[in-house]
Amino acid sequence: xxxxxxxxxxxxxxxxxxxxxxxxxxxxxxxxxxxxxxxxxxxxxxxxxxxxxxxxxxxxxxxxxxxxxxxxxxxxxxxxxxxxxxxxxxxxxxxxxxxxxxxxxxxxxxxxxxxxxxxxxxxxxxxxxxxxxxxxxxxxxxxxxxxxxxxxxxxxxxxxxxxxxxxxxxxxxxxxxxxxxxxxxxxxxxxxxxxxxxxxxxxxxxxxxxxxxxxxxxxxxxxxxxxxxxxxxxxxxxxxxxxxxxxxxxxxxxxxxxxxxxxxxxxxxxxxxxxxxxxxxxxxxxxxxxxxxxxxxxxxxxxxxxxxxxxxxxxxxxxxxxxxxxxxxxxxxxxxxxxxxxxxxxxxxxxxxxxxxxxxxxxxxxxxxxxxxxxxxxxxxxxxxxxxxxxxxxxxxxxxxxxxxxxx
Length: 408
Description:
The chain is α+β, with helices and mostly antiparallel strands. It has helices spanning 50-63, 93-107, 129-142, 153-160, 198-209, 213-219, 225-235, 241-246, 290-299, 303-310, 325-333, 370-382, 392-398, and strands at 11-14, 19-24, 31-34, 37-38, 78-79, 85-86, 89-90, 119-123, 147-152, 166-171, 176-182, 185-186, 192-194, 254-258, 261-265, 313-316, 353-354, 390-391. The chain folds into 3 domains: 7-158 and 362-404, Nucleotidyltransferase, domain 5; 163-195 and 288-354, ATPase, nucleotide binding domain (Nucleotidyltransferase, domain 5), CATH 3.30.420; 198-275, ATPase, substrate binding domain, subdomain 4 (Actin, Chain A, domain 4), CATH 3.90.640. It contains 13 helices and 18 strands. The protein is globular and about 65 Å long. Residues 42-77 have low confidence and may be disordered.
């Protein structure tokens, strides 16, 4: 197939346990779709709980951020009652394929019979070769794409922050991945994964909120996981510097509006993310804290690489947006740093965080988009030369294993 490698044809898809982000060409708006979304016009009908689905639709709509575009669903499109991607693991391939199909064919209006849109898709560092082969099979055989490139999410995130070396701390919905990268090479042996993510914070916060008697009387309705998630995203996090200095954070209640109701939240809001630093709070006594895991990841790398890792920490993932998380993490990492006035070449005094460059004005506050933005930049380079990506010709000649020749 001969197709024009025009930028308006490039498709970028960034997979996540909570949301999938996608873009075709260079639109101002990024398309985001919940990973629980099930377009039933594309797959066989499944028995789902309508009451649970309605609750999910309400909460997701209420939590959509300014530049989030939820899917233009038809009347039979619903949300699944269980995850499609659970703590980073693909649990339902058919449903995931249906999501991709919905994005490509429905939202982007791509014609399968004459598909001129190559796809850049990101995956976690630890997804297997077999999973990559299945992705290739789906996109070439089911969607008829003319080209495909599978990119490492962590590597794309460090690119999205304007660097080629650093430590990517991806705090997702189901888990946290800590990935060292040095000069564009992922240090796979040093990756640390914590089974703690946004969903654990939601459950922990719900328990805290249920102990707030004033909230219970003001809200006058049952508190559920959707409510806790909303509170986390609106005011959850850690005390800011002013609150810590004045010691008013614990006593002051914050007024919140959710689904048309006004009420106040107490100090529970400032303890929601504490399990990242004390996993035993969510029953995970054997799991190291986030600072401990970061230190382990860095010290698992060669000594000459550690300085670049300490000085280029990239927080990403949905829960990276929690208020005060970076400041709390920076403070707790100080215990691991070598404090010396006569620092040598391989000594370091400070943990430094990098962010999305200011020139990306529409996205510089969206650290959770780092991998997506990095992939969008790399797509321009990859699809500019047929040698860089898997073409339809490559796939027809080699099959799914062609994915191992030009990806990662």
